[in-house]
Design goal:
Elements lengths: L15 E2 L5 E6 L9 E11 L3 E7 L10 E6 L3 E19 L5 E9 L4 H14 L10 H4 L25
Antiparallel strand pairs: 1-3, 2-3, 2-5, 3-4, 4-7, 5-6, 6-7
C-alpha cells in the first residue's frame, strides 16, 4: 500500500511582522446608530498580510465577541486603517494568567475591502513592517509617474538587441 503524502498548504499572502506597536480596535455597535461607533482596544498585532492579521489579547467581556469591523491604530500616529471588514478564522487560548484570565490568539481574514482600503493596507505594510513587498507593477505602469524604484537603464531589450553575440 502506498503511504499517503501529507497535504502541504501554502498561504496566499506572505505575513509580515510589525515594527511599531500597532493595535487592533474593535467597533462595538451602539443601540442608536448616532455618531461614531465605540472603539475598543483589542490588543497588539502579531503579524499582518494583505489577506488578514493575527492579534493577541487578554480575555474581557467586551473583547470576546467577534466584531465584523476593525481598525488598526499606531499610538503615536492614530488610526491608520479605519473600518476594515473582517471575519474570525481562528481563535485559540494560548495560556491562562495566575488571576484566571486567558490570553487568546485570534486570526481574522479581511473581506470585501475596497480598492482604496487595499492600497492603504499595502502602504501600511510597506511603512510599518520589517520586510519589503516587491513591486508587482509592469515597467509600463511604473513609468506613468516618478517612481524611485524605476531605473530606465534596467529596461529589457527587444528584437535584435536581445540577442547577445559572443564572438
Amino acid at each position: 500500500m502506498e503511504a499517503r503524502k501529507p497535504i502541504t498548504r501554502r498561504r496566499k499572502w506572505k505575513r509580515f511582522k510589525i515594527k511599531s506597536g500597532a493595535i487592533v480596535l474593535l467597533h462595538k455597535t451602539r443601540l442608536l446608530d448616532v455618531g461614531k461607533p465605540k472603539l475598543i482596544e483589542l490588543g497588539p498585532v502579531i503579524d499582518i498580510s494583505m489577506g488578514g492579521l493575527a492579534v493577541q489579547f487578554v480575555e474581557s467581556k467586551n473583547r470576546l465577541h467577534a466584531a465584523e469591523t476593525i481598525s488598526i491604530s499606531i499610538p503615536s500616529i492614530g488610526v491608520t486603517l479605519p473600518d476594515l471588514q473582517c471575519r474570525v478564522i481562528f481563535e485559540k487560548v494560548l495560556t491562562t494568567l495566575p488571576d484566571g484570565k486567558k490570553i487568546y490568539n485570534r486570526c481574522v481574514e479581511f473581506v470585501n475591502l475596497t480598492k482604496i482600503q487595499n492600497l492603504q493596507l499595502e502602504s501600511f505594510i510597506r511603512k510599518h513592517t520589517f520586510h519589503k513587498i516587491p513591486d508587482r507593477r509592469s515597467g509600463k505602469d511604473r513609468r506613468v509617474f516618478n517612481d524611485p524604484d524605476f531605473n530606465p537603464a534596467d529596461e529589457r531589450r527587444s528584437g535584435i538587441e536581445r540577442r547577445v553575440y559572443t564572438r
